[in-house]
Specification:
The protein is mainly alpha-helical. The protein has helices at residues 12-17, 20-25, 28-48, 55-63, 70-80, 83-94, 108-144, 164-188, 202-207, 212-225, 242-270, 295-310, 312-319, 330-357, 362-376, 378-387, 392-411, 418-424, 432-438, 448-466, and strands at 149-154, 157-163, 274-275, 359-360.
Length: 479
């Protein structure tokens, strides 16, 4: 049978980028299965607190948590134009003994919002694991190259030397700051709870005959059942939309860190100092067979831009909610929140892959540094000359002229002759051999190797130990 391409749009995040673990969290099976678990938790807690909930209802609900006929749900939704009512009827078909008590006292936000928060928790925990995995890979890289001198740049212009490992610690530190933010967001996350139509719990108070204690006990039982310490202390119909804003801002922070790292790798790839993983049969260009483009890092930057842009959506939503709620949040949340998590997952899968396979071209690193080393010892020459009695300003002016002339020669394609010029200047009082000794790379990197050791031991190792079992398995990289 002849195969033809699909005629319906496929979301690129699903088709090309996101892991199956993250996609599962936002798939219909997870979402609607969670709705059913919330209904079951509500019914069980109501029964425990004295409401007339048949045992058969509980049993049938428990037996049919995951056999969800999405086509039948779609037929119900076409009738009712309401997704929650569609699934109430569908669950009632599967558990007829529960039909009369399903969703008792609840509003749509009971299943919709509480499920959103559960998805936030599960997805953010997966993001946390991916961040830890990336940090682990970068820590190995930093340790391996702790003392390898390399040219550092400010404004992408040559500056003083650093080490390859020290540069990697800058990437790691960004991710550790993200991890602190993730931990805070997870610790602060709560359920929306059982609040009724406008958050007053009036329906539940009526069900329990005015017993406020039982209303509180109902909410506590459901929070406990779903693995939360509690619910937000007050709500309208929905949980505070500030929560979405804060969580997606956290994802945008992760994206910014990954993008910064990937941009650095792209610049270093241009200098031929560093290469990202490149597979044996990978093609860099359809027209230029010799190309080895840093395509994984480029994709990290592209996807990160999407995450950063998406962070604006929940901020606008939180800013424009009317009184106890308005429905203009719903469609936007369906788009922005899954996209933000799936895109963050995708870029972290790539970041972990790149960090694990990053290759340093040591010869190129040394050669690039050697070209600029003579200029980098000039501050030391000036200080030594001043210490020996030369006027500091005169030494500065002489060195300035020599460096400008040597740089001009290099721009024109000739070899640099700065050391020869400096050694020939009797005012500065330094020999060629002394200049060569001053220009040894390991003497110019300051405390960079020790900083790498201290940082990895004091700040990275405790995090990796705390999360030694938290990192998910490496996902397939689809490029």
């Amino acid at each position: 049978m002849e195969l033809t391409p699909p005629k319906r749009y496929a979301h690129p995040l699903s088709a090309r980028y996101v892991s199956t673990e993250m996609e599962r969290i936002f798939a219909p099976a997870f979402r609607f299965g969670t709705w059913r678990r919330l209904w079951l938790a509500l019914a069980e807690a109501q029964r425990d607190l004295g409401l007339d909930v048949p045992a058969d209802a509980i049993r049938q609900m428990r037996d049919h948590l995951d056999d969800i006929d999405l086509e039948a749900a779609a037929r119900y939704e076409r009738r009712f134009r309401h997704d929650v009512m569609a699934h109430i009827h569908l669950f009632g078909d599967a558990a007829p003994a529960a039909r009369g008590i399903l969703h008792l006292g609840a509003t749509s936000a009971f299943v919709g919002d509480n499920t959103d928060l559960i998805q936030h928790r599960e997805a953010m925990m997966l993001v946390r694991g991916r961040v830890v995995g990336t940090v682990r890979a970068l820590a190995r890289f930093a340790r391996q190259h702790r003392a390898r001198p390399t040219l550092a740049y400010t404004h992408f212009q040559p500056a003083q030397p650093t080490t390859v490992g020290k540069r990697a610690t800058l990437w790691i530190q960004d991710f550790l700051l993200d991890l602190e933010e993730i931990e805070h967001r997870l610790a602060a996350l709560r359920l929306r709870g059982v609040r009724g139509t406008t958050g007053t719990q009036a329906s539940f108070l009526q069900l329990f005959g005015g017993d406020h204690g039982k209303v509180d006990a109902l909410e506590e039982a459901i929070c406990r059942c779903l693995g939360f310490d509690g619910a937000y202390p007050v709500t309208g119909q929905t949980y505070p939309r500030k929560v979405d804003q804060a969580l997606l801002a956290t994802l945008a922070g992760v994206a910014a860190s990954a993008s910064k790292m990937a941009h650095d790798i792209r610049l270093l790839s241009h200098l031929r100092e560093v290469e990202e993983p490149f597979e044996k049969e990978q093609v860099g260009s359809s027209a230029m067979p010799y190309k080895r483009n840093p395509m994984r890092s480029e994709r990290i930057c592209a996807v990160a831009r999407h995450v950063i842009a998406l962070a604006a959506d929940p901020a606008h939503t939180a800013a424009t909610q009317w009184l106890e709620r308005t429905l203009d949040d719903s469609a936007n949340k369906r788009l922005a929140i899954p996209d933000a998590y799936m895109a963050t997952d995708a870029l972290l899968v790539l970041a972990g892959n790149v960090a694990s396979g990053l290759r340093v071209n040591a010869g190129v690193v040394a050669a690039n540094l050697a070209v600029h080393l003579p200029f980098m010892v000039m501050e030391g020459v000036m200080m030594d000359a001043a210490a020996a009695g030369t006027d500091r300003q005169e030494a500065h002016e002489r060195i300035r002229r020599h460096t400008l002339e040597a740089a001009r020669r290099m721009i024109e394609g000739a070899e640099g002759d700065l050391f020869e010029r400096i050694a020939a200047d009797d005012t500065l009082g330094v020999s060629a051999s002394e200049l060569e000794e001053m220009a040894r790379p390991e003497k110019l990197v300051g405390r960079a190797p020790e900083q790498v050791d201290d940082f990895l031991d004091a700040h990275v190792a405790p995090v990796l130990e705390r999360y030694r079992d938290a990192a998910p398995q490496a996902a397939e990289v689809r490029v």
